[in-house]
Amino acid sequence: MMYGIMLLMTMTRLAPSEPVALRDNIRLYDTPYFENTAKALPPSRRFPGGRIVVSTGQPRSTARLLSRPIYDADMQIDRVTPTTANPYPLLSTQAIGTDNQIVRLKDGSLLAVKDSYLWDAFHGTPPGWSKEIVTGHGDHQGQRGGLIFFRSTDGGASWKQHSTVDFATFLGGKYGVPRPMDDAGHADVAPENQARRPDGSLRWWIGGMDRTEIYSCPFTGSVYVSTRTISGPYGEAYPKYDRLLLLRSRDLGRRWEAIREDLPSWAPLMMTSTPDGRLFLMQYLGSQPTVYYSTNLPRGSERPILSPGYPVYWKEGDTNVEGKGGTDVDLFFQLGHPSISRASSRPGSSAVRIAYQTCSAAGAQEARIIRVEVRDPSRPPIVSNVATIRGSDPDHFSVMYGYFIDPDYLDMPRNRPSSVSVFAWIEAPRKNAAKPRWASRCVVLSDDDAVSAPMFLSVADGAARWWEKRQDPGDYISGGFFRMGDTLNYVAQWPEPDGMYANIVTVPYPRPTRK
């Protein structure tokens, strides 16, 4: 029987120092929300125990912004203080959707974004469809999609609305136009198949966004948002649009501008950047993992100029291993979940890691991690294999919803960069397994892409812990990072049937070698 991680390259060394996880999990909250994203704050004078902050996805009606201390006054893991649960601060004409992301801004504050529903009064001249009753969060006149940004300056203890992208007014309003809907609730039907309400009016679904991602570049201070939008048609005046947008803010998320409106409409579009300021983006185009990067190094008000989309694959000889989800997995699976990680720590290099999903001959899901390096921005990147991540028993378990947790450079001295990253996932059994069980696991990748042995994140008294009732995580998970002294600390979180849990993987933070 084969276990854990299989390295198909020559990189068989461990990460630079042995990682250590907590012996017992932290219980974050009693409700097992799904599609949750997280960040962490380091211990400081203002937050002596540090903080774990989580933006939750669904159930929408009870979704909260969670915050709890990591350590108590004796700098032991705080297992006593209750988690603070704040409702999203909304107006009476707003409601939240499920999709969410959270980042730390360059000033250390937190910015969370939620796909949202809006039906407040239009500013300026109302669009031609403004009096239509539109379905989304219930039925409201003039309802449309939007992005609401929430900011916290006190470690997640409280939140305020920071800004809104209203797709009925942003970029001329073309991405907020309602979409024809049939009686079964399906949107984007042909106009001739559009249903009518009992009063004879046409049925409409909101125009707006899906699978929004956000990234705060620690090198330039710019904040980027990507989202897929679908809108229209509404008569001849409002055509149908299906676009993936890339937005940028240069004032910590207060105002937003469009960088691109013509990216392929496959979501999500994941983002990171390297120390030279180069922006990287990654998405699936069908089964094709695709990367873009800025051919310039944007500074100040300069916009990133994106390369063409380059296919990037794990290679088996001359064969490209295509992205594909597992076909025999006992866990909700709807959409391929890629992830991207900063691999460069030196200012002169531009390299990232990409993880994408593949399927084994046994029908199990695996993750392929590849290195993508830009040496000449006018040419395709150089792609090399790093590792194949397989389940603990590859014939019976899958690697689901793998995600990277990267160092947060806000917490790190400029002369001590690091790109040590944790790759975490949910271990899921085959369908109809005799004794189904699930777990959370991870590996650690070093700057030179050495990979550690797999370790369990779900633990009890230092031993591996599995749960025996399925709990779907949604479409994605994310984690947080904090530096404390000479350690790098990676916070992974996940839902289980009885609540939300976390673990912290600690890696020694080596000091620079003096020459």
Poorly predicted regions: 1-16
Distance between the termini: 47 Å
What's the total helix number? 0
Radius of gyration: 23 Å
Helix content: under 10%
What's the shape? globular
Largest sheet: 5 strands, antiparallel
As a percent range, the share of strand residues is 35-45%
Q: Average pLDDT across residues? A: 93
Q: SS-based structural class?
A: mainly beta
Q: For this entry, what is the oligomeric state of its chains?
A: single chain
How many E strands? 38
The order of strands across the largest sheet is 1-29-28-27-26
Q: Your description of this structure?
A:
- The chain has 515 residues and is mostly beta strands.
- Helices cover 0% and strands 43% of the residues.
- The protein is built from no helices and 38 strands.
- The chain has strands at residues 5-6, 20-21, 26-29, 37-41, 51-55, 64-69, 84-87, 94-104, 110-118, 133-136, 138-141, 144-152, 160-166, 179-180, 204-205, 208-216, 223-231, 241-249, 257-263, 270-273, 279-285, 288-293, 310-311, 314-316, 319-321, 339-342, 351-359, 365-373, 382-389, 397-405, 421-429, 439-445, 455-456, 459-460, 463-464, 480-484, 487-496, 499-508.
- The strands form ten sheets. It has a five-stranded antiparallel sheet with strand order 1-29-28-27-26, with no helix packed on it. Strands 2, 3, 36, 37 and 38 form a five-stranded antiparallel sheet that branches.
- The chain is globular and about 65 Å long.
- Mean pLDDT is 93; it is low at 1-16.
